[in-house]
Specification:
- The structure holds 2 protein chains of 2 kinds.
- Chain A is α/β, with parallel strands linked by helices.
- Chain A has a 5-stranded parallel β-sheet. A 5-stranded parallel β-sheet of chain A has the order 11-18-12-13-14, with helices on one face.
- In chain A, β13, α6 and β14 form a beta-alpha-beta unit.
- The radius of gyration of chain A is 23 Å and the shape is globular.
- By secondary structure, chain B is α/β, with parallel strands linked by helices.
- Chain B is built from 28 helices and 34 strands.
- In chain B, the strands form 8 sheets. Chain B has a 7-stranded mixed β-sheet, sandwiched between helices. In chain B, strands 21-25-22-24-23-26 form a 6-stranded mixed barrel.
- In chain B, β1 and β2 form a beta hairpin.
- Chains A and B meet through β25 of A and β30 and α25 of B.
- β25 of chain A pairs antiparallel with β30 of chain B.
Chain lengths: 412, 891
C-alpha cells in the first residue's frame, strides 16, 4: 500500500449539496493521492435529509424517516465526524482554523462551504407573530402540521414551486388554504400562461383558493397571527402564514471571513472560492453570476467540486440548465429553460385539454431552448437531454412532441 | 336462405351477370345489405366480377338519393311534377315548334326506358332532338360500322377474344375499363401461350401487363398506323382478293399511298422494328382481333379511325369467322340498347334511319305516330350550342351528368343554366347537373329497375329488381309515359310493365324486316311476361325464340343495298388543335380502375375510393424536371377552354409532352377537379363525337401555402365547408378530404371551427408548430375518434391509413389517443401502405413485405399468401409491377 497524504477536510453545512460532494469524495478517494479526515458541521440536529421531499412529508404521504439520506450511523460507518446542531461562527483562513458557536476550534487543510440558503422573509409588520413561518426545514413542516391540527385557515404567500407544494400539503392536512401571489399567473417563473391556468384549475379543484396580483402588507393578530392584510386593504383569515417567496444564499460566514461574495459566494468553474483552500457548493454559491435554488445544479456542482478537492482532473462546471417539477400528487409538470420564447423562437405545442395534457417545446435555431410539460412528462428526460446537449432537432421536429418512441433514431 | 336474384351489372359494356342476395334492410338504421357474386351461368363473365362489380353492395344506400319530385326546389307530388314537365314542354312546342325541345338521355337507361323516350320524341313530339351520352363514347364506332357494314353491327363476340391468335388492344386500357374481359384474355393467353397481345396506346397502361408488344404511338396517329397497315398488307401481297371482290365494294376508292415503315414509324413516333413486327404479326396471323374503345372513338377523326381498322379486316376477309374481326367495345351498360332503339339523334329506331323514307314511313305507321320527325336531330354538342343560341328552350336530361361529362364543361354549365326549362330525372339528389335543374324527378336505379340491357357482344340480359323503389322514385319508362299521356298520347304510351315495352320494341325490329335489317328480335315478339322475367342472356338477332346469333356476317353478306361491305377511303388527320408555346402539353382523359363515370355510384363505395382518392395528372419525369414539378404537388392545368387542379403523378409510363387526367371527378368530389372543363369542344364531323383524347394544355405548379387532410366520421353529422382546394373520398365510416390553400391561416382552430360545424363543442386534441405552419387536431367523443385534421406547409403529411383504422373502431385506447396527432402508432407497428387490392384491402407494404420475405414470384403466389388479386383480379398488373420492382431491388 502506497503512502497517502492525510488531510483534514472541514465541511460547513450538512445539506444535500455538502453530502453529495462528500459521497463523491468517498468514491473517488481511492484514485487520489490524498485521503481526508472529514468533519461536518451542521446547524440542524439531524443527519442529512432530502429537503426537496419535505412536501410529501407535509402532505402526510411520507414520514421523515423515509426521506433521510444519511443517518448518524452512516457518518460513523464512514469515519466522518458529524457535529450536528452546531454552527461555525468564525474562520481564520490564514491559520486555517474554524471556531464553532460552542467554542470548539477546528483545524482544516481544505474547507468546503455548503451553507445553503435562507428563506426570504417579507418585511411586513407582524412577521414575527406566532404562526408566521417559512418553509425550509423539517421543523417548519412539523410546526405546520401541528398548527393544522388546531386551526383552519392557512395562507401561503408565493405561488412558486415551494409555495404550491406547501399549499397542497396544508390542504392535505385538512386546512382551508389560500395562496397569495404578486404575479398574474402562478409559477410564472416556470410555467407559461396556459400551463399555469391548467395547474391553477387543478389546485382550485382540490379546494385551494388563489389571490393573484396581491401584495401582502401586514400580518395581524393578538397572540398569534389571525389575518393577512393586502396592500389594497383587503384581508383574509390566516391562522398560519407560510412565506414561500424565495431564498437568499447564506453568505454570512463567507462574508465575515473576507471571501468574495456577491449574491452568493463567488466560485470559479471548479467550485473554488478566491481562497485556494476554500471551496463552496450548493445554494450558497454564485457561479458565473448565477445562483441556484434547485437540486439538479447542486448535484452537477458536487461532482466537480469533489474531484477538485481531491486534486483529480475534472471537466469544469459551466453552469446548469434549469428545470423544475412540482411535487404535488396528481400533478405532473416539467419546466425548463426559456419556456415562453420570444420573437426569434418558435414553439411546438400539443394540447389535450380533456386529458389535461399540454406540452410545449420552444425552439431557436433548431435547438430546444425551453420546455413546458403539463400532464404528461414521460419524455421529460429525453427532452432535457436534447436541450442540454443543444442537439439539432430539425430531423425530428415534426414528431418529437409525441415522444422519443416516435423518433426512429432515438427510440432504438 | 335468401333467394338470389340474377341481374346485370350497371357499369361498363361487358355486361356481367350478377347474383344478388338481399340480406337485410332497415331504413331507420340506414342499413341495406346485399351479397353480390358473379353469375357463373352468365356467358359474359362466367362468375367473374371486377373491383367495381364486387363492390356494388356498398353502393346501395338511402343517403344521397333523390326520393321526391321537386319543382324549383319545392317538393311536390308526382302529379304536379308531371304536369309541370308536360306543360313546360307543351308551351315551348306551341310557341317555338317541336325542335325547340330536346331529351338528353343515357346509356345507363334500360332499353325499355330508352325505347319510350325515343318514341315520344321522334314519333309524337315530332323532333329528333333526342341525343344521348353514348354520343360521347360510342358514336364514332357506330359511324364506322354503319359506313362499312350498312348497319351498326358488332361482328364479334367474347369467345372470339379467347380463340384469336393475335389480340390488338388500341385506344383501350381494358385492364381497368373492362376488367372482366381482360381477365378472360389473360387466362386465354395462359392457356394458349402462342397467342400474341399487342397494345397500341400512347400510355404504358396496366393493359400492357400481358402484352407481347406495346406500341406507344404519338397521340392521335392511329389512322396513320392502320392505313399504313393496309398499305403494308397490300405491299406484301397479303390481301384477300377473293373476299374483296365478292363481299366488298369501293376498294378501288381507297387511296393506298406509297409506303415505308421508316416514314410511318416517324409519323407515329414509333420504333420501326416494333412497327414492322406488329405488321408482320398481323400479316401472318389470320385469327386476329382489333379491340378498340375511346382512344379511337373520342377523336375529331374517330369515325375514320374506326374505318381504317375495319378496312384492314375487309381487305383480309377476316370477318364472320371465329376469333377475328374489328371489335368495338362499349363503355356503358346499355350503350348498345340505346343504339338498338335509335336513341341517337341521327338514328330513327330499331337500326332504321331518317334518310330511308320507307323506313321512316314504316316506323310512323308502326307507332301510329302523331308527329313524326323527318330528319336527324341535334347531336349532343350541337344540342347544347342550340340551347346557347336560344333555339332549344326546354331540355329533359335523364340518368346522365352532362355538366361533368361534356367537353368545355364550364361553358356547358353556363349554357344549361340559361336554358328556360331544365328537367332532370335522376336517382341521386346532388350532382353537378341536378344543380342546374328546374324540375327534378326521382328515378329508380340499379336494383330497383326492371328491364333489359345489351352488352358489347349484342347480348341482351335482364336487369332485375331485388328491392322496392325507395321514396317516390319511379321507373324512367313510367315517368316518360306519364308525361306522354299528359301531352295527349294516352293510348300510345299506356304501358303496364316493362315487358309490354319490350314486346313492342321486338315487334318494331321485326316490322317489315325480312332479313333487311341486322337488328331483328322477331323471335321475341310474343314473349310472355313470365318468359320475359325468366329471359336468359341472348345475342341478337333473335329470329326464333331462344335462338341467338353468336357471330355476324358469317355468309359474307352485309346490310348495304348491295349486301357488300364498303371500304372507306381514310385520309389520316392529326387532332384538330395542335400544341403550341402557350399550351405545350397534350391532355388525354380517361378512366381509373375503381371509378366509373361521374362517381355518383362508385363514389359511394369505400372500397372503390381507396385506390385513387383524388384527381391526378400523370406526367413524364422529363417534363416534371423541365417544369420543376414534384410528385404529389398540386398542379394547375389550363387549356383555352378551362382549368383544373390535379395532384402530380410523375411516371415514365406517360409520354413526354403528354398529360393524363381522370375523367371522373366533379364538384361533388373535388374542387376544380373537372377534367372536361379543359377538353376542347371539337367533334368528329361524321359522328359528332368529341375529341376527349387530345386538348392542348399548359401545366404549372399550383402553390398552396399549406396542404392537409381531414377525416370526418359520418355519424359526426358534419361536413367540411370548403373554399380552397379539396377532394373527397368515402372511407367507410368516414369521409376523407385532401385539402390545400393559398391563403395563410393565422388561427387554425378558428378556421376549423368555421368550417367543420360542432368541433368547438367536441373533446379536441391540438398540435401546433407556430413557425412551421404545422397544425393538427383530433376530435373525440366518448373515446370514439370523430374527426382529425392534419395541416403542413408541404405535402409531407402522415399516412392516413393508421388514422383510418382508428375511425373504424368504436373506441380508442389511451395509447392510441396519445399517438393520435402523430398520425401513427409509436414503435414498429406495420403500416400496410396504400391499398392495392380493393377486394381484400391489401396494402402495398404488406404485399412488398410478403414478396421479400416469402420469395413470392407470381401474382398467384401473392394470392395464395394474402388473397390479393384472387377475387376481381383487377390489381394483378400492379401485383406484377410490385414483384418486378422488388426483384429489381427497387422500392
Amino acid at each position: 500500500m502506497s503512502y497517502k497524504e492525510k488531510q483534514k477536510l472541514l465541511v460547513v453545512g450538512n445539506g444535500m449539496a455538502a453530502m453529495r460532494t462528500i459521497e463523491h469524495i468517498l468514491s473517488y478517494q481511492e484514485a487520489a493521492s490524498t485521503n481526508f479526515d472529514i468533519t461536518v458541521v451542521g446547524a440542524e440536529p439531524h443527519g442529512n435529509y432530502n429537503r426537496i421531499m419535505l412536501s410529501p412529508v407535509l402532505a402526510g404521504e411520507k414520514h421523515f424517516s423515509d426521506i433521510m439520506l444519511h443517518t448518524h450511523e452512516w457518518y460513523q460507518n464512514n469515519n466522518i465526524t458529524l457535529l450536528a446542531g452546531k454552527r461555525v461562527e468564525q474562520l481564520d483562513r490564514a491559520e486555517k482554523i474554524a471556531t464553532l458557536d460552542d467554542g470548539l476550534v477546528l483545524h482544516y487543510d481544505k474547507l468546503l462551504l455548503a451553507t445553503g440558503s435562507d428563506p426570504f422573509i417579507i418585511p411586513v409588520t407582524g412577521k414575527e407573530l406566532p404562526g408566521v413561518l417559512s418553509y425550509r426545514t423539517i421543523e417548519d413542516v412539523e410546526e405546520m402540521q401541528s398548527i393544522a391540527k388546531q386551526h383552519k385557515h392557512a395562507v401561503v404567500i408565493g405561488a412558486g414551486v415551494l409555495g404550491l407544494e406547501a399549499a397542497f400539503g396544508l390542504q392535505q392536512q385538512g386546512m382551508q388554504v389560500s395562496v397569495v401571489h404578486n404575479a398574474a399567473t402562478i409559477m410564472n417563473r416556470q410555467l407559461d400562461e396556459k400551463a399555469a391556468c391548467m395547474l391553477q384549475q387543478h389546485l382550485e379543484g382540490l379546494g385551494i383558493t388563489f389571490h393573484l396580483e396581491k401584495n401582502s402588507a401586514a400580518c395581524e393578530g393578538v397572540e398569534r397571527v389571525e389575518k393577512l392584510v393586502f396592500s389594497d386593504g383587503e384581508a383574509i383569515a390566516a391562522d398560519l402564514v407560510v412565506m414561500a417567496v424565495g431564498v437568499r444564499a447564506n453568505t454570512l460566514l463567507a462574508e465575515k471571513s473576507g471571501l468574495a461574495c456577491e449574491r452568493g459566494i463567488v466560485v470559479d468553474d471548479y467550485l473554488c472560492t478566491d481562497d485556494d483552500n476554500v471551496y463552496a457548493v450548493g445554494e450558497c454559491v454564485q457561479h458565473r453570476g448565477a445562483t441556484y435554488g434547485l437540486v439538479a445544479p447542486l448535484f452537477e456542482q458536487a461532482v466537480v467540486c469533489a474531484k477538485n478537492i481531491l486534486g483529480l482532473s475534472t471537466e469544469p462546471y459551466l453552469g446548469s440548465q434549469l428545470y423544475t417539477s412540482l411535487k404535488v400528487t396528481g400533478v405532473n409538470l416539467y419546466s425548463a429553460g426559456d419556456f415562453n420564447g420570444d420573437e426569434s423562437s418558435e414553439s411546438i405545442i400539443y394540447d389535450d385539454p380533456a386529458n389535461q395534457v399540454y406540452k410545449k417545446i420552444v425552439i431557436n435555431n433548431n435547438r430546444i431552448i425551453g420546455l413546458n410539460l403539463y400532464g404528461d412528462i414521460s419524455d421529460a428526460v429525453w427532452y432535457q437531454d436534447l436541450y442540454q446537449q443543444k442537439k439539432d432537432i430539425s430531423g425530428m421536429r415534426e414528431d418529437m412532441i409525441f415522444g422519443k418512441a416516435f423518433i426512429a433514431d432515438e427510440a432504438a | 336462405m335468401t333467394s338470389v336474384v340474377k341481374t346485370t351489372c350497371p357499369y361498363c359494356g361487358v355486361g356481367c351477370g350478377v347474383d344478388v342476395a338481399p340480406l337485410d334492410e332497415n331504413k331507420t338504421k340506414n342499413i341495406i345489405n346485399i351479397a353480390v357474386e358473379g353469375d357463373k351461368s352468365h356467358p359474359a363473365n362466367l362468375g367473374r366480377l371486377c373491383s367495381k362489380g364486387s363492390a356494388l353492395g356498398e353502393t346501395i344506400r338511402y343517403d344521397g338519393r333523390l326520393l321526391q319530385a321537386k319543382v324549383k326546389g319545392e317538393v311536390v307530388e308526382w302529379d304536379k311534377a308531371l304536369d309541370a314537365v308536360a306543360d313546360g314542354f307543351e308551351n315551348v312546342i306551341a310557341e317555338h315548334g317541336p325542335d325547340a325541345v330536346a331529351f338528353y338521355v343515357s346509356g345507363q337507361l334500360l332499353t325499355e326506358d330508352y325505347y319510350v323516350a325515343n318514341k315520344l320524341m321522334k314519333g309524337f313530339i315530332g323532333s329528333a332532338n333526342i341525343d344521348t351520352n353514348s354520343r360521347l363514347c360510342m358514336s364514332s364506332a357506330v359511324a364506322g360500322y354503319k359506313r362499312a357494314f350498312g348497319s351498326d353491327t358488332v361482328p364479334c363476340n367474347y369467345e372470339d377474344i379467347e380463340t384469336c391468335d393475335l389480340f390488338i388492344i388500341t385506344g383501350s386500357n381494358m385492364a381497368w375499363t373492362h376488367p372482366v374481359l381482360f381477365q378472360r384474355l389473360r387466362q386465354a393467353k395462359l392457356d394458349r401461350p402462342h397467342m400474341k397481345v399487342v397494345v397500341i396506346d400512347p400510355r404504358r397502361t396496366a393493359s400492357c401487363d400481358i402484352a407481347d408488344l406495346h406500341l406507344p404511338l404519338a397521340s392521335g396517329t392511329d389512322a396513320y398506323l392502320f392505313t399504313g397497315l393496309l398499305a403494308y398488307l397490300k405491299g406484301n401481297g397479303a390481301l384477300n382478293q377473293d373476299f374483296i371482290d365478292q363481299c366488298t365494294e369501293n376498294f378501288s376508292d381507297v387511296d393506298i399511298a406509297d409506303f415505308s415503315i421508316a416514314a410511318l414509324a416517324n409519323d407515329c413516333a414509333l420504333d420501326a422494328d416494333d412497327l414492322e413486327l406488329f405488321f408482320s404479326w398481323f400479316l401472318q396471323i389470320e385469327r386476329s382481333i382489333t379491340f378498340y374503345c375511346m382512344g379511337i372513338n373520342q377523336s375529331s377523326s374517330g369515325s375514320d379511325k374506326a374505318n381504317a381498322i375495319i378496312n384492314t379486316y375487309l381487305a383480309t376477309g377476316r370477318i364472320g369467322k371465329p376469333g377475328m374481326g374489328p371489335f368495338s367495345i362499349t363503355g356503358q351498360p346499355n350503350a348498345m340498347g340505346g343504339r338498338e332503339v335509335g336513341g341517337l339523334a341521327n338514328q330513327l329506331a330499331a337500326h332504321m334511319d331518317f334518310a330511308n323514307v320507307e323506313q321512316r314511313s314504316d316506323v310512323e305507321t308502326f307507332w301510329s305516330a302523331k308527329n313524326m320527325a323527318i330528319a336527324d336531330g341535334l347531336k349532343a354538342i350541337d344540342l347544347f350550342e342550340a340551347i346557347d343560341a336560344g333555339k332549344v328552350k326546354a331540355i329533359w336530361i335523364m340518368a346522365t351528368n352532362p355538366i361533368v361529362s361534356l367537353p368545355d364543361a364550364d361553358r356547358m354549365r353556363q349554357i344549361l343554366k340559361k336554358c328556360e326549362l331544365v328537367v332532370v330525372s335522376e336517382c341521386m339528389e346532388n350532382t353537378d347537373t341536378t344543380a342546374c335543374a328546374d324540375i327534378l324527378l326521382p328515378a329508380t336505379t340499379w336494383g330497383e329497375k326492371d328491364g333489359t340491357v345489351t352488352n358489347s357482344e349484342r347480348r341482351i340480359s335482364r336487369q332485375r329488381a331485388f328491392r322496392a323503389a325507395p321514396g317516390e322514385a319511379r321507373n324512367d319508362w313510367w315517368i316518360i309515359s306519364e308525361v306522354a299521356k299528359r301531352l295527349g298520347y294516352n293510348d300510345e304510351f299506356n304501358y303496364t310493365c316493362s315487358a309490354d315495352i319490350f314486346r313492342e320494341h321486338a315487334a318494331l325490329s321485326a316490322y317489315k324486316n325480312n332479313g333487311k335489317r341486322d337488328f331483328d328480335l322477331s323471335g321475341m315478339v310474343d314473349i310472355s311476361n313470365a318468359e320475359y322475367d325468366a329471359l336468359q342472356p341472348i345475342q341478337w338477332p333473335v329470329k326464333k325464340a331462344g335462338q341467338g346469333t353468336a357471330r355476324m356476317f358469317t355468309d359474307g353478306k352485309f346490310f348495304t343495298p348491295s349486301s357488300k361491305a364498303r371500304f372507306i377511303n381514310v385520309s389520316p388527320r392529326k387532332p384538330k388543335n395542335k400544341v403550341n408555346d402557350e399550351y405545350p402539353f397534350i391532355l388525354n382523359t380517361g378512366r381509373v380502375r375503381d371509378h366509373w363515370h361521374t362517381m355518383t355510384r362508385t363514389g359511394l363505395a369505400p372500397r372503390l375510393s381507396k385506390h385513387i382518392i383524388e384527381p391526378f395528372a400523370e406526367i413524364h419525369p422529363y417534363d416534371a424536371e423541365k417544369f420543376s414539378l414534384k410528385q404529389g404537388q398540386l398542379l394547375e392545368i389550363n387549356s383555352h377552354w378551362g382549368s383544373m387542379l390535379a395532384r402530380a403523378s410523375i411516371t415514365a409510363e406517360q409520354q413526354k409532352g403528354n398529360v393524363f387526367v381522370p375523367m371522373h371527378w366533379n364538384d361533388q368530389f373535388s374542387y376544380r377537379g373537372r377534367a372536361d372543363a379543359l377538353v376542347n369542344p371539337v367533334v368528329d364531323p361524321v359522328s359528332g363525337q368529341p375529341e376527349y383524347k387530345h386538348t392542348p394544355v399548359s401545366i404549372k405548379a399550383w402553390q398552396p401555402s399549406w396542404y392537409g387532410f381531414v377525416l370526418l366520421r359520418h355519424e359526426a353529422g358534419i361536413g367540411l365547408t370548403h373554399d380552397s382546394y379539396w377532394s373527397k373520398a368515402n372511407g367507410g365510416q368516414f369521409i376523407r378530404y385532401e385539402i390545400a390553400g393559398t391563403d395563410a391561416v393565422d388561427d387554425w382552430k378558428k378556421w376549423l371551427n368555421d368550417r367543420i360545424s360542432g368541433t368547438d363543442k367536441m373533446d379536441g386534441l391540438f398540435y401546433n408548430d407556430t413557425k412551421k405552419s404545422y397544425y393538427r387536431a383530433a376530435y373525440v367523443q366518448n373515446n370514439k375518434l370523430m374527426a382529425c385534421v392534419f395541416i403542413a406547409p408541404s405535402i409531407d403529411l402522415p399516412s392516413r391509413n393508421w388514422l383510418a383504422g382508428l375511425l373504424a373502431k368504436d373506441s380508442i385506447t389511451v395509447k392510441e389517443r396519445k399517438s393520435l396527432l402523430a398520425g401513427r402508432d409509436s414503435g414498429n407497428n406495420f403500416d400496410p401502405g396504400e391499398t392495392i387490392c380493393s377486394c381484400f384491402a391489401v396494402g402495398e407494404n404488406t404485399i412488398r413485405h410478403a414478396i421479400k420475405t416469402k420469395g413470392l414470384t407470381t401474382p398467384k403466389d401473392i394470392g395464395k399468401c394474402l388473397k390479393a388479386g384472387t377475387n376481381c383480379g383487377s390489381c394483378i398488373p400492379e401485383l406484377q409491377k410490385l414483384i418486378a420492382q422488388e426483384k429489381a431491388g427497387l422500392t
